[in-house]
Design brief:
About 40% of the residues lie in helices and about 15% in strands. It is of the alpha/beta class and about 375 residues long. The longest helix is centred in the middle third of the chain and has 28 residues. It binds 5-S-methyl-1-O-phosphono-5-thio-D-ribulose. 5-S-methyl-1-O-phosphono-5-thio-D-ribulose (MRU) binds next to helix 3 and strand 9.
């Protein structure tokens, strides 16, 4: 491992070697940040190469790179790239410029908490640098730790969640909370992957997830690639699928989980949670600890409003009269009473969510043992 700011992804490839089918969504190679360009999928699996913080901000805003945990990891490396471009020996001036880059990264997308968490953590590591020259190495160490931790967290989420799934069950999921949204392996899809790795036969229903179709483009791509049975439905068909008894569990990801238990996730999650409650289908949220936000109230969560063209056009073709506008909120908030449990990398948090989340700070959760299926919390 070379310590001059460039290096090969030793650790990441080790994991990939274990399960070659595993997608490697992000990698740092010789001072270049590479991430899978999600806008090209499913037609093309290719990496977008980023060599400066401006390119990282553009990749996040345009959703070439998307998914809260992955945006966090890429944001972390974005600050490493920014440090590499600082041409002053004055540490105070260097820190001022680094702060400017950190703020630019954090402002790209406001709803997911992981981006601010990761960028602030890497920025804090800059205080360890004894000179501007050593800034890049220090920040790279921190970004690498975040990547490693997030990948380990994904595998632990899988293990904690897999015990909640029974052989032969059908899981409905919304948006893409897979390898393409994380440091690898996924969150909601980690639960499915781990259950399949345990020999369980799991089928998945993926909602297409309008307007950008993360479900039909990305979730279906990941599962089909690994020969895990998957069917796509329109978002509006989720309730009927449950009414017909075709869904055993719902597992989705999250962009921000509040101390109260409110879960922010892709627009369309709330109606799925409402239908699940009505039809008695267990509704689980899978997310790493880095997605917990103990500072914000539900009323303070900023819901990203994206370009209305994403709703009005599909594949560059307009599907609405020219003089009609569209609204395009990208996320919604599911209240805690609709959530059966939160599957984290440190254990499954069950109801009452607010009470259990409040009692548990990040550190306390750290020691939870991986339960066996016997310990699986009762669905309702
Ligand atoms: O707009 P996106 O595609 O970034 O939204 C992604 C989601 O809502 C995911 O469900 C969430 O980030 C969790 S990803 C593990």
């Amino acid at each position: 491992m070379r310590r001059n700011g460039t290096r090969e992804m030793g650790d990441q490839s080790l994991l990939a070697v274990k399960n070659s089918a595993e997608l490697v969504p992000v990698r740092w190679r010789n001072g270049v940040l590479e991430a899978v360009d999600s806008t090209l999928l499913p037609a093309r699996l290719a990496y977008v190469r980023m060599t400066n913080v401006g390119q990282v901000c553009a990749a996040i805003r345009s959703m070439k790179v998307r998914g809260a945990p992955l945006i966090g990891v890429v944001g972390a490396y974005g600050l490493v790239l920014a440090a590499g471009k600082i041409e002053t020996a004055d540490q105070v001036e260097a820190s001022r410029r680094l702060r400017k880059s950190a703020d630019a990264l954090i402002e790209t997308r406001p709803t997911g908490v992981n981006l601010r968490w990761a960028v602030e953590r890497v920025f804090k590591a800059s205080s360890r640098a004894s000179s501007v020259k050593s800034l890049g190495v220090e920040l790279l160490k921190e970004a690498d730790s975040i990547l490693r931790e997030e990948l380990e967290a994904a595998h632990r989420i899988g293990k904690f969640g897999a015990v909640l799934l029974e052989d032969g069950e059908t899981v409905l999921t919304h948006c893409n909370a897979g390898a393409l949204a994380t440091a690898g392996y996924g969150t909601a899809l980690a639960v499915v992957r781990a259950a399949v790795e345990q020999g369980k036969h799991i089928s998945v229903i993926a909602t297409e997830t309008r307007p950008l179709l993360q479900g039909s483009r990305l979730t279906a791509f990941e599962l089909a690639r690994e020969k895990i049975p998957v069917k796509i439905i329109c978002d509006s068909a989720a309730a009927q699928a449950m009414a017909r008894g075709g869904v055993d569990k719902v597992v989705v990801g999250a962009d921000r989980i509040l101390r109260s238990g409110h879960v922010t996730n892709k627009i369309g999650t709330l109606p799925i949670a409402l239908a699940a409650k009505f039809y008695g289908v267990p509704f689980y949220v899978a997310a790493p600890i880095s997605t917990l936000d103990f500072e914000t109230d539900p009323s303070q969560v900023i819901i990203e409003e994206r370009d209305p063209k994403e709703v009005l056009y599909i594949g560059g073709k307009r599907f609405a009269p020219m003089n009609v506008e569209a609204l395009n909120p990208a996320f919604d908030i599911t209240p805690p009473e609709l959530v059966t449990g939160i599957i984290t990398d440190r254990g499954v948090i069950v109801q009452p969510l607010a009470e259990n989340l409040s009692r548990q700070t990040r550190r306390k959760i750290a020691t939870a043992e991986i339960p066996s299926s016997r310990d699986a919390p009762s669905p309702n």
